[in-house]
Structures are given as C-alpha cells and as structure tokens.
Write a structure and sequence with these properties.
Layout (H helix, E strand, L loop, with lengths): L1 H9 L3 H13 L5 H7 L66 H5 L4 H4 L14 H17 L3 H10 L21 H7 L39 H44 L1 H7 L12 E3 L7 E4 L12 E3 L6 H4 L2 H5 L3 H9 L20 H8 L9 H6 L6 H21 L3 H21 L3 H12 L7 H18 L1 H14 L6 H13 L6 H18 L3 H15 L8 H12 L4 H22 L2 H19 L6 H24 L31 H5 L2 H18 L5 H19 L6 H18 L1 H16 L9 H4 L6 H9 L6 H20 L5 H11 L5 H12 L4 H15 L4 H16 L4 H6 L1 H10 L3 H16 L7 H14 L5 H20 L4 H18 L6 H22 L1 H23 L8 H5 L2 H13 L4 H7 L5
Antiparallel strand pairs: 1-2, 2-3
GO biological process, one term: intracellular cholesterol transport
InterPro entries: ARM-like (IPR011989), ARM-type_fold (IPR016024), HEAT_type_2 (IPR021133), LisH (IPR006594), RELCH (IPR040362)
Subcellular location: Golgi apparatus, trans-Golgi network; Recycling endosome
Length: about 1100
C-alpha cells in the first residue's frame, strides 16, 4: 500500500492519493507518507498547471528544479533546464498587483513537493522562483528586522506595499511551523551549514540509483541508507563527524571575528598614535635616525611602518601595521575557510612581499619631549578611525589588487545612496562615502594636475562640513600624508588649505585650521616653522569666528611640539600673548590647555623658561601695578597671572629633571604610589606633571628622591630649585605687597596662584622655603606693635594672600592651628595699633567663601570676643558682619548670636556700638523667626534704653544700618520696627541743639529714607510714620541743608498726592512708592540735586535698589 501511495505522489495523481488517504483514514489504516504529505501546505503551492499527458511526469530526477539532470520515462532525452533569471528575462506581469499569480506551465511541470525536493542538491546555475508562502515568510522576517533596527519609516512603507499580510502575527503567513529565528540569527548560523561528502536521500522515497547525482540533503538531517547494520554505523559516523566539523567551524569563525576585532582596535590605536610611536617616539631610541615607511602588496594589509632593522637596546625589529582589512575573513570562500584555520589566515596575511615602492621618510625634529607628552598633544587632533568609513579612509590602497578590494568594499555603500540621493542628508552621506575613493585616486594617479583637481574636490566635497565630516576628511588627509611623504604634502595638500583660509563659511576655515595641526608631523620642518606658522598667525589675528580661532590655537600647540627653530621663539611668545588676550573664553581656555604647555615644553628645552618666559610675565605684572595706582587693569593682571599659574607644572618638571638625584632615578622593584591629592587637578593632560616627565612611575621615583633631598640633603648645587627659592619667590612676595588689598579679584587670583605653587612643589618645600620668607616679611611679634615699619606690611595684601594661598594648602591639624594663630595675631596687632582692618577683612572674605573654614573663622572671632583689650573685642564685633552672610543659619544661631549678645553687654560702649551692623546683617539674611525676635529685642534695647539717649555715635550707626538693610529685610520687621523708629529718631533730632550732630543725624536719615522709598509702604504706615518722619527731616534741612530740603519737599508732596488718590480709587497692585509717586519733573530735580550732595556712594546706590 505504501508503494502505491508513493507512485501516486510521484505521478502527481494528487486527488487519487487524497481519496486513498481518506479511505485509509476512515478505516483506521493511515499511511504516514500520505499523512505527512497532505499536512504540509508547501506541497500545494502553484499546483494549477495541467498534469502532463501520457501518465507520469517522469522520475524525480527529472523534476528537481526545472528538470536538471533527470530523464523522462519512455524517452532517452533530458528535460530542458530552466534559464538563469536576469532583469531582461523576468516576467514582471506575474508579480503585478492585479492578483493574477498563474505560473507558466513549464514551471508547474517541473515543481515537486517540498518534502521530496529538500533531499536534493540545487543546481548553482538555477534559481527557483519564490513561492507565495516563502515570500510571506521572508516578508515577515524582513519587517521584523527593520523594526528591531529602528528603520521604522521603511517598515511602514514595506507594510503598505504588502497590505495583504498581517506582520504582527506569524500564523498569518500560513505555514504550520513555529516562527524561525530572526534574520540576524539565520545569517550568523549560515556558516554552520556544510555539504556532506556523499549525497543521500530517504530510502522510502524510492529514488533510482542514477538520480543520486542531482540530490543533496539539508545539513542537519540525519542521512538514512539501506537498513543494514553497516549503513546505520556509517550514518552514525557521518553524523558524529558532521557535529565535530560544526563545532570546530563555529569556534573557528568566533576566533576569526575576535582576531578581526582586535586587529581593528590595533589599527585604531596605531592611527591615533602613529606620529608618536613611529616618527617622534624614536627620541628615546638614539639608534633610530629615520623612520622609513615601506609599502607592501595588498593581501589584506596596506601600509607597514618599520623601524630600522637594528635596535640593540630593545632586542629585535619593530614592525607596525598601519591597518588591517576587517573584511579578510568574509572575502575568503566558504570552501577555503572550511579547510583553513585562523593561524593559517594570519600567516597568509603577514607573508606579503614588500613592494618596490621607495620608503617614505619624515623629518625628525631635534626635540626631547616624552612620548607620553607627544601622545597627549596629538590627542587634540581628532581623527575618525573608529567606524567602518573612518577605518576605510585611514588606509590607502597601494596596488592594483588593493584598489580593487577597496572598490569592492566601498561601492556597495555608494550605489544605493546614488539611487536614493534625493534629500540633502542622503547627498551628504554619499559625499562621505566618496572620500576613500578620492584619496586613493589622488594618491596613485600619475598626473599632478589630476591629483590637484581630486584634492580640490576633497576639500570642497561638503559645503559646510560638520564636526564628524571634518574628522573624516582630516583622517583621509593624514593617511594621504603618510603615504606620499612630506614633499607631496607640501606641494599638493597645503595649497588646498591656503585657498580656503578666507572662505566665507567658518566650517571651511575650521577645516583649514584643524588640517594645519593634523598635518604638522608630516610636513618638512622648514615649511612647518614658516608657511604653516604664518597661516595660523594670520587666522588668529583676522578670523572673527571663535571656533576657528580655538582650532588655530590647538594647531599652534601641535606645531610648538614639533618646531625646532630657535629663531621662531619670539614669534611664538607674541602669539602666546595674543592668544591669552583673546576676547573669547574658548580661545583662552584652549591656550591654557594646549598652546601654553606645548610652548613651555619648547621653552624648557631652549633654557628660556626660567630666564625669559617667567621673568617676562612677572615684569609685565609689575609694570601693570606701577601704572595702575589710580586704576588697575584687572583683566590683564588675570591674563598674565593665569599664564604663570599654567607654567607651574612645567617649572616643577624642570626642577625634577635637573636635580642632583636625577641620575639615580631608576625604575627598580616596587614603585611608590603617588597620593591622589598630591598635585592640583590639571586643566589638561599637557599640564599633568606625570605626562611631562614621561610616566607616573618615573614621577613617583623622582618625588621620593625629591622629598628626601629637601629634608636631609638640602639644595646645594641644585640651580633650578635655587632660582625658584632665591629669585622667583622674593619677586612674587614683593609684587603681592604692591597689590591693593581692597581689590577682591586680585587677592583671589594671587591666592590661587600661591596655592597651586605650594601644592605642586610639596609640603616640605612649602614649610621650609615658602613660609619662612613670608614670616620674615610679616614679622609677627609683640615688640612690633607700636612700630610703624613693622606694621605697614600687615595692612597690605600680603596678609590675605599668605593666609589663604599658603596656609590653606594643607589641612592637617597642625596646619589649621597655624592658620588660626596667624589670624589671631593679625587681628590683635591691627587692633592695638589702630591700623586699618582691610587686610583682615580680605582674609575673612576669601576664607569665608569656603564653608570648610567657617568653624575656624568663628574660633578666631571668639578669641577676639574674650580678649582683654576692648580694641580687639571691637574688631571681632565688626568681623562678624562679614561672616554672617555666608554662614549657615544653624551656626548663626549657635555661635554668632551668642557671641554678639555677649559683646552687646560689654562695659565699653564702643564695643556695643560695633555689634549693630552685625545685628542688622542678621535681620537682612536670616529667616528663623525666633532668631529674628532675639535680634529685634537687642536693637530695641539700644533704641529705648535711657542710657543710650545721648549716644550720638550709636544713633548714627543704627540709622546707617537701617538704611542698608531696610530694603532687603523682612517686610514685617521693616514696617513694625525700622520705619517707626526712624520717625522717632527724626523727632528727637529736631530737638538737637548741636548743629553738627543734628546735620550728621539728618544726613543719615535722608539716606535711609531715600533707600526705603523704593519699598512698598502701606497707606497707614505712610500716614502715621513715613510722611511725619519726612516732615521732621525737612524741618532740620530747612536750616542746615537747603539743597536737601528741595528734594524732601518734592517727596512729601508726591506722597501726599498718592495718599489722596488711594482714598478715591482702589490701589492697583503693590507698586513701589518711588516708581508711582515721582513725576518726571520731580525725578529730574531729584537727580540734579543728588549729584550736588556729598553723601556716600554706597548709600546713594541704595536709593535705586529694589527689594530682592
């Protein structure tokens, strides 16, 4: 019965076979062959053709894939093979949207069920047309791939074009099999499918012996032979071998991918560090005089950079591959890869014969920079070798074969973009894809004119190249330069830069500026120090775009890393000053990060760091201070001082490299660790002392010897350090003494400078060399209290800069005690000698900006609170005013207010009066209700206690404080306390018999009322206190100061008008009295009169200060 079923299926008598299957099923004798056949929908696609006459379609061998290799029964002729499909031969009508999917009879005749056809080998010359179910399955997988990889728009379009299919449901495809893996998994698994040595089929199909030639199994199906023990044993052996092959092949492909990935990373690193490792890295290898660039035939590799053959110091020849083709493994045929292993592939790649092309030599400048510094410098040239296109651009084919391979890799990415290049974004992407082709052709083309035209196209390829596109072009230019050598770079690439130096688009000029730095290692040294330097100088002086000038500065820094012409030193110094004075913060920042460190390295090699660069900057600062007695140019001071600060790491590296112990610094045994906080954080890698020295390990050894030398052996014979101690420090301390102590910005700048200097040179140096020099100048001792010569320096900026720049470098307990003792001594000496407190105030302001020092400052002030001298207690009270604004409210409540309350009951009235400004500042800044009430009670006691009725100085201080804090204080405190008490003080002042005191109080009252007039004042308060107070004040001014009286009359008049208007209409919002009541005429008179008054500038400024 099974034989009959097989014959019916072979002869395509499907209805008869179906009837037989139904009858057998009803009788309970189901045949597995028929069940499997009719349960597979794939067996019934394209079955609409007419069955052939004459009985059978022929043997299975004649039906496979268009009849290739089969014979019809009864005739000795071969079936006609299907032709290879081409675009010309495709019948597109069969795939139209009209639903007519009938196929050619010839195709129908040649089709067989899928279950049988899968056991046969497909002819490589014949492509079977896709079936509807296959198409639906592939459509589902393609749509799934598009969605997973964020091609959402493409997926939507794809769904619209296949509207008859539901892409969210696999069952809609129509196959009764589980959903297969996604496309990516199928692609990755493809390499595991191999062909066995002998083609076999299922015996139950009944294939003739001569039909085996056309058959092939699918990998993974277990082959079954004749059911003999030998056949079964052979089958098991074959399956076992296939499994081993599969495992080994998977492992091989995994290793090949890993090799490709690692070699790609090596390529990237070599592209980044090429100039350091192969051109100028030889500074540490004296035996290497030149670096030849040899070119090899393309067998997956491109350019080889080789050192000289003999390197006795390092033992053997160094060979560096510029780049390795990541596509080597994928280009190898499957048959070859099955019989090869990764090591053989690597041997094949590395065995390429050297080309006959002459080696390319680059000039090696006479410089001594460390490789680490060179690498950090070149890191500011951003290349783009970490992508497919970047990797392609960074290598240039050098032979006909490698050109073909490069075209094979690039054209598949270019052609689709050509077909789709309708949008600007697609055109830009296409332009980037063309870069490797343009560069390769420009390198290899024999005609100079054509090469020039190609490079012109490269620089004009993109109208306004963005950051990524410029990086791609720069990467290509560097690869071109490495390949052709310095002569052609000068003759072919530089003219392209020169042409675009004044281009109207800043992106193009930016490309020129970046190109000058990127190409610097590959240019002749004469051109580097002349033409390129002049181009960058012109762009720095003339270009108006900040980004362009920033790129110019970075390129100048790279040029300074290669230049070795001492005659260009002065030109470099002038460029440095121009860059430091640039109005753009970006340019100045780039100067400190790149240009200045690179220039300092060259200056160090020339011996000019200590004898020209630093002394010149110091002289410019001294000149500024001499000329700025009536107005210091703080911007220029900042410019020069920040430059000096950026030179500190270079100066310290010079001291270490020229120390007596340098020859002993050997990396042996365990290297000591450098503390993380040993050095201040550098603003760029080029200011890292470890980078300047060469390595962190070498620096650690030098630091250990440095500390030992300072602590035990001294500085004898150490010229570079003696210059710092005997010349630099005394000059700096002298300059500090000339600074105006009231200039907060200058004090801060010099404090930061000394802090960085001391932290860089270390704690031993600070304690033994820096502090003694300051202490000698300050001479803090009791016998100097009455000596004007000894106290003069205490009033200068030396005090705050020493306190905040030197004594705060290290924060151990001993250091903090030293700082506390110094501030206590200064406070005592200034108080007892009746000297100005500006230097102490500057110290408190600078230290108070850092919350870490608040407790320390409060400790210093408490020392003053309990001091036996009233002068010191008075100074402490005044210092609290400076500290309150930055201190947390908790500290104010716990430490400040108790101290002020203590001082407010001091036996000396001057001490009590000195607490009033601090109490006022608390009212202005604190929000705690309980704290405010305590302060309010204390101020009320000053105003209401009879013992203070005749204290003119106390009343003056209170009025000044009210005028300063009133506009910013809490409204309730202002309305309920400040304005009513000002009214009382104005009334009392009307009764004052001493005109001088009366005028003094009246003047301060006028300033207070002017400041408060900017605040919102309610109608009741205006009628009951503000207006009466102004009228009392006008009474005083009528007799003592008529010019004030005019202004007061105008203010009173406008206030009265405002009150009258409020009774007629509702007030519109909480407008400022000053803004709403003063007419234009009154404003003009008010301002004119204010200009004639002699009141303090600080108080007049409060007139126009609104509530914050």
């Amino acid at each position: 019965m099974d034989a009959i079923a097989a014959q019916l299926l072979r002869d395509q008598f499907l209805l008869t076979a179906l009837e037989l299957h139904t009858e057998l099923l009803e009788s309970g004798r189901e045949l597995p062959r028929l069940r499997d056949f009719f349960s597979n929908p794939g067996n019934f696609e394209r079955q609409s053709g007419t069955p052939p006459t004459g009985g059978a379609l022929g043997g299975l061998g004649g039906s496979v894939l268009g009849g290739a290799g089969g014979r019809e029964p009864g005739s000795g002729q071969l079936n006609r093979a299907g032709s290879i499909s081409t675009l010309d031969s495709l019948d597109f009508a069969r795939y139209s949207d009209d639903g007519n999917r009938e196929t050619d009879e010839r195709v129908a005749e040649n089709e067989v069920p899928l279950q049988e056809r899968k056991n046969y080998k497909s002819s490589p010359e014949i492509q079977e047309p896709i079936r509807p179910l296959e198409k639906r399955a592939l459509n589902f997988l393609v749509n799934e791939f598009l969605l997973k990889n964020s091609y959402k728009l493409t997926s939507i379009t794809f769904s619209d074009e296949n509207h008859d299919q539901d892409f969210e449901l696999w069952d809609d495809v129509g196959l009764n099999i589980p959903k297969p893996p996604d496309l990516l998994q199928l692609y990755r698994d493809f390499g595991n499918h191999h062909v066995t040595a002998r083609d076999v089929v299922d015996v139950s199909v009944g294939v003739e012996d001569d039909e085996l030639d056309a058959a092939t199994p699918i990998l993974g199906s277990v082959p079954v032979f004749e059911t003999t023990p030998q056949s079964i044993e052979q089958c098991l052996i074959v399956q076992k071998l296939e499994d081993q092959i599969s495992v080994l092949n998977t492992e091989k492909w995994s290793l090949m991918e890993q090799i490709q990935r690692l070699e790609s990373e090596i390529d990237f690193l070599k592209n980044e560090n090429f100039a350091v490792s192969t051109v100028y890295g030889v500074a540490s290898h004296p035996s290497l005089k030149q670096v030849p660039l040899t070119v090899s035939e393309d067998n997956g590799r491109y350019l080889d950079i080789k050192s000289s053959e003999n390197d006795n110091k390092h033992g053997n020849t160094e060979e560096t591959s510029l780049s390795l083709s990541a596509e080597v493994a994928s280009r190898t045929s499957k048959d070859d890869t099955l019989n090869s292993v990764p090591c053989k592939e690597t041997q094949k790649l590395s065995s390429c014969a050297p080309s006959t092309k002459a080696a390319v030599h680059f000039d090696r400048p006479n410089r001594k920079l460390s490789p680490a510094f060179h690498q950090a410098l070149l890191s500011f040239c951003r290349m783009s070798a970490d992508s497919r296109l970047g990797s392609e651009v960074s290598r240039i084919a050098d032979s006909e074969k490698s050109v073909m391979l490069m075209l094979g890799r690039c054209l598949p990415h270019i052609v689709p973009n050509v077909l789709l290049a309708k949008r600007e974004k697609m055109v830009l992407h296409l332009s980037q894809e063309l870069i490797p082709l343009i560069l390769c052709t420009a390198c290899l083309h024999p005609e100079p004119k054509e090469r020039d035209q190609l490079l012109h196209i490269l620089f004009n390829l993109i109208k306004r190249p963005d950051d990524e596109q410029r990086q791609m072009i720069l990467t290509g230019c560097v690869a071109f330069a490495r390949h052709v050598g310095p002569t052609r770079v000068e003759a072919e690439l530089l003219p392209q830069c020169w042409e675009q130096i004044n281009h109207k688009y800043p992106e193009r000029r930016l490309l020129v500026a970046e190109s000058c730095g990127a190409l610097a290692p590959y240019l002749p040294k004469e051109i580097r120090s002349s033409l390129v330097l002049s181009m960058l100088q012109q762009m720095l002086m003339e270009d108006k775009a900040d980004l362009v000038r920033e790129a110019v500065i970075k390129s100048l820094g790279i040029i300074m890393g290669y230049i070795d012409d001492p005659d260009k030193y002065q030109q470099g110094f002038e460029l440095l000053l121009s860059a430091l004075g640039d109005p753009s913060e970006r340019v100045v920042s780039a100067t400190h990060q790149v240009f200045l460190p690179a220039y300092a390295a060259w200056t160090t090699e020339l011996g000019n760091l200590q004898f020209h660069l630093i002394p010149t900057l110091l002289n410019k600062i001294e000149k500024l201070l001499r000329e700025g007695e009536h107005g210091l140019d703080e911007h220029k001071l900042h410019m020069y001082l920040s430059a000096l600060q950026s030179l500190i790491p270079s100066l310290f590296a010079l001291v270490l490299q020229n120390a007596p112990f340098t020859s002993k610094a050997k990396l042996q045994g365990e290297v000591p660790q450098i503390e993380v906080t040993r050095f201040p954080r550098p603003v760029s890698p080029l200011q890292d002392v470890a980078i300047i020295i060469g390595s962190r390990e070498q620096l650690a050894v030098l630091l250990q010897l440095y500390d030992y030398q300072l602590e035990h052996e001294g500085t004898t014979g150490w010229e570079t350090l003696l210059w710092v101690v005997n010349q630099l420090l005394p000059q700096l301390i002298e300059i500090v003494g000339k600074i105006n102590v009231a200039s907060t910005a200058c004090v801060h700048e010099f404090s930061r400078f000394f802090w960085r200097l001391c932290r860089t040179f270390g704690k031993i140096f600070t304690n033994t060399k820096v502090k003694p020099q300051f202490q000698e100048i300050l001479r803090l001792s009791e016998e100097n209290i009455d000596s004007t010569a000894g106290n003069g320096v205490l009033t200068k900026a030396t005090v705050p800069i020493y306190a905040t720049g030197v004594l705060t470098c290290y924060i151990q307990e001993d250091d903090r005690k030293l700082l506390v003792g110094f501030l206590e001594d200064v406070m005592t000496m200034l108080s007892l000698s009746h000297a100005p407190l500006d230097s102490l105030k500057a110290s408190f302001v600078e230290l108070g900006a850092n919350p870490a020092y608040h407790e320390l400052l409060l400790t210093v002030l408490w020392y003053g609170v309990v001091h036996t001298s009233a002068l010191v207690r008075c100074t402490a009270a005044r210092m609290f005013e400076l500290l309150v604004k930055g201190v947390h409210e908790t500290l104010v409540a716990q430490r400040v207010v108790p101290a002020l309350i203590t001082l407010s009951s001091d036996p000396e009235i001057s001490v009590r009066i000195a607490t009033i400004p601090a109490f006022g500042t608390i009212m202005e800044t604190v929000t705690q209700r309980e704290l405010l009430e305590r302060v309010k009670m204390q101020l009320a006691s000053f105003l209401e206690d009879p013992q203070y009725q005749d204290q003119h100085s106390l009343h003056t201080e209170i009025i000044k404080t009210f005028g300063r804090v009133g506009p910013n204080a809490e409204p309730r405190f202002r309305d309920e306390f400040v304005i009513p008490h000002l009214h009382k003080l104005a009334l009392v002042n009307n009764q004052q018999s001493v005109d001088s005191k009366r005028l003094d109080i009246a003047t301060h009252l006028f300033e207070a009322y002017s400041a408060l007039s900017c605040c919102f004042i309610s109608e009741d308060l205006m009628v009951n206190h503000f207006l009466p107070g102004l009228k009392c004040l006008r009474t005083d001014m009528e007799h003592l100061s008529p010019e004030h009286e005019v202004i007061l009359s105008s203010m009173i008049k406008e206030c009265e008008q405002k009150v009258e208007n409020k009774t007629v209409q509702e007030p519109q919002g909480s407008m400022s009295i000053a803004a709403s009541l003063v007419s234009e005429d009154t404003k003009t008179k008010f301002l004119n009169k204010m200009g004639q008054l002699t009141t303090s500038g600080a108080m007049l400024a409060n007139v126009f200060q609104r509530k914050k």
